[in-house]
């Protein structure tokens, strides 16, 4: 894993800077205040971001904020496992929620919540304890993130024995640190150490302040005359700057107006319509609204009803002659049905055939005459003739009655047959007419009582003709309005094509026209004002004047006060060594009991994680690697360094084992360098990360520094190292 390059827009003292990093050892030799620590902070900020500014704190986000202005941040390009990552991150002044961060992998934008955690497998604190080395790094402890990064497997142990051991360890731990309250050895020792810290801090601060005060006193002796000359020069520039202010304001305003004018030109390179054309556009828009409204009013609202009638009658509309024929058939059917109804009720009789009674009446008269002759013969005593006359008359009367009866029976039979034949003819004719009507109406999709269907069809035809006429009229009128609308559209299209317009309305175009005229007038006015006040710029500001006067006033006051303070601080600074000795004894005791507590806590943790297995898998390799690095650097110091299971550095001297607090500053730097290198080797089996050294060896003498240089150059053969220093003696070049 190696860094390729970075671009800094604005970050602390660095602005518009570009850096390219090569493989192996990269040495940056710069004076103090040139941005070495700022570059290290920028690289870490690109990976892990910056914390938000809190009301009661001053953190890195506030420290590196570019007060000169510009975008706060930049970009970082690095390589890991053959993939090129580019991180672009820009910071808000206060809140990390408003930061902008983009991550690209092989030029493809990817989603990333914490790119530093994802690339290194470490949080920000662990990154600072392993990858980043500074001159202030005197703490060798690890944390949970580093242990987890070693990727070791935890196995279960015997539950009963483990719980018993944890109980005993917990009981022993309470002696050093109570679960509640502060009645324990660590709390008491810390209280004592805090008292010594306060006294020592006050004394050391006074001693450090004494040196600063003396340096400041000498600095003020030189600066006060310079400030007085600067104040005189500033008054001269103030007069010249007032005139330039008027010119600059007009020039800035002119640039803004010109920019607005350019935007309008780029949007409408062919210009804007004339006043006459704008009036024409307004008239067309009003007419368009009118024509559209008319077309909406002329929408045919009976389309569904007309469509059904058109499907029924449009292709085969019956003529009036056909309708009359259908009505006649309907009327004839109704007559036949009434006859059938009368037949059923017995109220209808066919006219009977003629039954002549005259022959029988004549015969009856002849019988009456014969009987009258018989009566006359009987009166005249012609009894024989009278008898035969009576007999003949009775025989004739009997024959007349017999034949009359036969004729009457035959007449009744003939009339009954005739009535039956007439009813069957009516039924047959009614069926034929009904069938014809049903078939006729079925062609038009009409069903129901055929006696009512002629009226239904007539009503449908009347409605169909009325709707067809209404539809045709509305469509004709819509076509007329559509034609008028098309003419307006053609006019509007010609105007828009002429000026390359889109769909801008009259109101929009009028506003743009008014804006263009106003911009042109403003340009002319501002140009005249610029010519009136034109001159070269002069650097001056009221803040500068106020700051300078305040600085001069304060410098004079401070110069007087410093002389008195220096005398007082010299007396307090003499007590530093006594407080330091007392604090060292308390710190040694606290370190010893805290080490014991850490050992207990670590033992409890390792018991929970099957500590024997965990230790055998990753503590031993780290210790071995630590010893290897310490062996390479052993000639720097006669001190024999070692690393225990809790990653604590210790050493032996005169047969007694001591903690890291008793090491000198140079020995601590060597010890913690070895420990961090061994941890990195244990955490990364494949590609190792780059290393950052920010003047980490300022406390080493030249002999020790030479050994460290050899080690770093050897390490640079298979990993990338960025080394920052401010002194040529530590430059490794």
How would you describe this structure in keywords?
single chain; 733 residues; alpha+beta; 6-stranded antiparallel sheet; 19 helices; 65% helix
Classification by helices and strands: alpha+beta
Q: Report on the biggest sheet.
A: 6 strands, antiparallel
- Span from first to last CA? 24 Å
Rg, Cα atoms, Å:
62 Å
> Which ranges are low-confidence, i.e. pLDDT below 50, for 5 or more consecutive residues?
151-159
As a percent range, the share of helical residues equals 55-70%
Strand adjacency order, main sheet: 2-1-4-5-6-7
Report the portion of residues in β strands: 5-15%
Total number of beta strands: 13
Coarse shape: elongated
Give the count of helical stretches. Answer: 19
- Tell me, rounded to a whole number, the average pLDDT: 78
Concise overview:
This protein is of the alpha+beta class and 733 residues long. It has helices at 36-48, 60-63, 115-120, 124-130, 144-149, 159-176, 185-267, 275-297, 303-313, 320-345, 358-379, 383-442, 453-499, 506-533, 542-573, 576-608, 611-632, 665-683, 702-715, and strands at 2-11, 14-20, 25-29, 73-80, 83-90, 100-105, 108-110, 132-134, 640-643, 649-653, 656-659, 691-694, 721-725.
